[in-house]
């Protein structure tokens, strides 16, 4: 795993459905990488690149420490000058705090220079958006989209780039609601939100403001359901992978082991194994039984399962592997113990796993046919039949 913190991480395998040695985050990341359109981006609609979603995929792959080649291609897609300008703005009439911060985190995770990413200085761009209050505010002809999440992400990105401005940190601290949680919306009645609190806590811990993070953590823990999940502040919300993934990150880096373990258990309960359709094996669904938004859900769940903050995610040491859920049936044999079974060298004996997706074989091999062994069985059977017949003949002759 790349960028591992000093906190012990929980690696939850998929039991019998897991590829040998692969963990839930590995197989989820393998599935995620295979969803990249043209191998380098995700889309919000056909032929419509989702830059924010693609950035989340890169961070998730780096957190899992696999899919390095896929993450490199996705980061290169985001670094194309036209993509950067469309995502973060032109830096003059249009400039967006959240995308600038997210893209800077991608650059930092990849070991690239956020001051020269796609010919854009992302750090300077964020600095230009900081108001005297310390808040990062969009420059746009459209309504301002900056919020508590973009503020926390900006603090994280700038801290990694050399140090977050004190005023920006102070603004984040002061944005806390009365109950201790942190909001997403900053220009309305303060309403604590799980995702806003989770990212704010990560940012505050990264800049050494653990005291300010304590109340947020207390509120966050109070929102955890009995199953370990978390929900957003939206009306009729239910426990979901995105909210739980972000919360798990904050809990783990804050040392809240028991609560983080419960959150990871909820996330892995949403992961699709061998009983699911092959196309979704490894994916983490947004909510139980729903594959809507599975790419986004999986992207946000993976760092939570790994237990690493956005302040520490790194591609260093990542492999190109794209793990799959191993659904190979273990070899079984009814051969008498005196006959040594012949194991399938292409099965569960340390060889490559059965391919998934379009290249999967119709059926996995389960053994090697040996004619000599079969004939021994036939001869034994015939001998037994002859013996029974002889016994009956002798009995009738008495």
Automatic annotation (TrEMBL):
Keyword Cell membrane: no
Signal peptide location: 1-16
Membrane-crossing residue ranges in chain numbering: 372-390
Keyword Magnesium: no
InterPro entries: Terpenoid_cyclase/PrenylTrfase
Coiled-coil region(s): none
Entry keywords, A to Z: Membrane, Signal, Transmembrane, Transmembrane helix
Protein name: Prenyltransferase and squalene oxidase repeat-containing protein
